[in-house]
Specification:
The protein has a domain of 118 residues. The protein has 25 helices and four strands. A two-stranded antiparallel sheet has the order 1-2. The chain has a two-stranded antiparallel sheet with strand order 3-4. Helix 11 packs parallel to helix 13, helix 16 runs antiparallel to helix 18 and helix 18 runs antiparallel to helix 19. One of its GO terms (molecular function) is DNA binding.
Length: 625
Amino acid sequence: MTRSQNLRVYRACQRCRQRKLKCDPSNLSEGTKPSCVQCLRSSNECMPAGSRRGGDFSRFRRPYGDRSSTPTRANIGHGLHDEQNRDDEKVMDDPIYAELTNPGDALQILAQLAANDSQVPNHPNDSTTFDPFPVTPSTKRGGTDTAFNINGPIESIQPPVLQSTLSETETLVIGVLGTDTVCRLIHHYAANYHTFCPLAPKRLLATTDPRKAAVDEPFLLTVLLTIASKDEPAYKDIHQHCWKYLKRHLLDILLATPSTLRVGSVEGLLLLSEWVPYMQLDTCSYPNMFPRNLSAVEDNMAWSLIGQAVRHSYLLRLDKASFRETALGESQELENRNLLAWIFVYIADRQISVRMGQSFWSRGPSLSTNFTANDFPTLRLRADAEHKYAHVLQATIELTQLLHNVHDTLYASKERRTQMVRRGDYNRYLDDFRHSMSAWKDRWDGLETSPKLHCTMHIFKEYVRLYANSFSFQSLLSRAAHHSRPAGENRATTSGPKRAPSLFPRGIMSTAEGAYVLEAVDAARAILTIVVQTISQAQIRYMPFRFYMYTVYSAVFLYKADVFGAVVSTEHTEVVNLVQHFIQVLEEAAISDSHIASRFATQHIFHRFELCKYVVTAVRTPPKY
């Protein structure tokens, strides 16, 4: 209490009141919501507790004459029972009974014991005297704390403009871009990007106060502004400013500063990995940095960002969201955000690892519960009924699990892959995969959703089908190359282009892997067909980077299949026309030379399809019996 105004200086939060800890305000929030020391140390959301003062207690008072009467036996028993329950609660809340499984738990126990000791008054026999008016943390700081003053939290009684300093994001929103530009960029992101990855909270996309959003979600807001300005030439300078401020936030996340210990940091990292900013890198100055790999910059950045998201998720204990358990002291909104963030971390970790041919970041990111669309209430809003986000997410989870199992079974290591190719015993795995994929199609192929999600979901489905069945084609190619190479011949002694022999001189179905090869070719053609038949260019222009990689992967596979005879001569012209139309779609979707669609459309391999029919030496005629 203040001695002049009789106002409370600070009110304890729910977590500290429940654990009977001393609740001291902290000035380490760095422009974000106020937080106490205990919640900041344990990475929990600090929620002020309700007041226990006031109310009419006259009905609990007894007349003066009854106060000296002897209590009944029932009242005595009831009082003893309540006292025993309170003692049990005190024992359970005692930090000494907390679990000790790692050094981090030991530090938590020490901190809680120290907080309890500082809260207990001195014993009468001690030499020191108990001070009935202890100095509060606010008076110790002399009013210099930016988050609190003697009248309570600053955000509840004063407008934000009275703060002495601005955070990085507030400076970007107010001093650099302006609130009108920020609102326009957020609307642009919500209209063109959010549908592909519905991870950003709705309240942030619908905000009318960018400055408040900059205080509540500084990193996530900066990510949205950076993504929204990356593909528009008119926003080129804005994109540079956003990227400059974003790099400062990324350094704080790398160092795990207290202000970044929130689920919004994980959401921002995942969104940034889907739409990596264009690096202003002079590739002419680094000719050997990324040889023959146009997407190396984006791939490497996405790989690093997702890895940081995995580590940050474990730091925030988001892995507990994979169980259907209600976390104590967390709001329903925060609990739903934690669950969505962990699921998207799992999906991103599996997909980026397969895409780059790397091992998974950790065996930890997994889903211990079979989640369904009913577990995602924030994705089932009436305003989003057209998209059916929850059902698409459930279908994507099941496809990602299929992709993960295929990768672990067929592509686990180079030694195992070589062993299976030599023995040829991988057919049983492909048969089981075809059965699982057929079950997925029966369940989800009839799902009616928005055009954007319909396009990306089916591209991913065909990519998984191509990734699994292309193993058989590559196995045939590896065995043919091994048997056709003479003993002692060096691979690097080729003096000119060689004509590729057909792998199927007697027809595709004459081989044991013919059915899988045909299915792989069909999946590759289906991916390009989906892109070509997409009506809106915006769906191609703004879709995440990984879907461009899936289309390029299918085009390169079709090129190899055509060269080695997996595409019959009657279908060669159709494949060439399909690839040329695909190149045209990429050129129309690109709005600048730095756009990923423009870079992929200029690849020479796409223009080599017309030469494929002159390369294959074997005559593709039906086999003679």
